[in-house]
Specification:
By secondary structure, the protein is α+β, with helices and mostly antiparallel strands. The chain has 9 helices and 12 strands. The strands form 2 sheets. Strands 7-8-9-10-11-6-12 form a 7-stranded mixed β-sheet, with helices on both faces. It is elongated.
Length: 262
Amino acid sequence: MIKTILIEDRIDRKQYISLFKKHINNRAILFQGLRLEIGHLFVDSINNPTTGIFSLDPVHFVAGNPDTSTAIEFLRKVQPLQFVFIPTEKWSKQISTIWGERTIPHKRTRLDETSLSLDHLRKLREELPSGFNIGPIQNRHLDEIPSGYLDSIEKLFGSRKNFLKDKFGKSITFKEELASIAYPAFPYINEFEIQVITLNKKDFRQKGLATVACAEMIIDALEHNIVPHWDAANEPSIALAKKLGYSNPVSYYAYFKAPNSE
């Protein structure tokens, strides 16, 4: 009999955090989410768990023993294009065993934020092109970003209103039109992952707007003792992170299941 237990509000999550200690990637999302008690936490035993799963759709973090019935059941039920972050190679092998040819490794790169320099970031902030303005994100700006990003914001933060309570997100506008936006990708307490978007219009590309938006946001975060993490999905993102002052890129793999071809 498969036994998977959802840890609900009445049960303190703190006792299960150590189960995920081997995770070194996307720790801001994982541990901030666990502490905030958002998403869903599943274990195979309330008192003596050996397998844990933290789900913040469409992202999942797995932990502990990948050979339990709880682990196997979860991996079988993962929907296509949902990301699974793993702590050990054993989980990678189990994923390949269960998903087979539908296993898609997705290369990502984490960077070190301890090398960030406020002096360097302040110089980057001064590179805002003439005619552009930078300030807090406004509700109307959310209507201008791609729908997939807006859907994610509303799902993760619960509502636009909740998202806009955050004061670290920055927007760059040109004649009231949104050009670029940087914001915390997930809810957080004292550290977050950065999401940045520059609108795909010829007047806004190749002007360093993403750099300025991120620099302004990171400065604000550091001055308030918030840790801004950077996890890159592609080479342009790595290059932007390095320009901002992040260092020591380390590649790793998350996994998703390809849609069924039938």
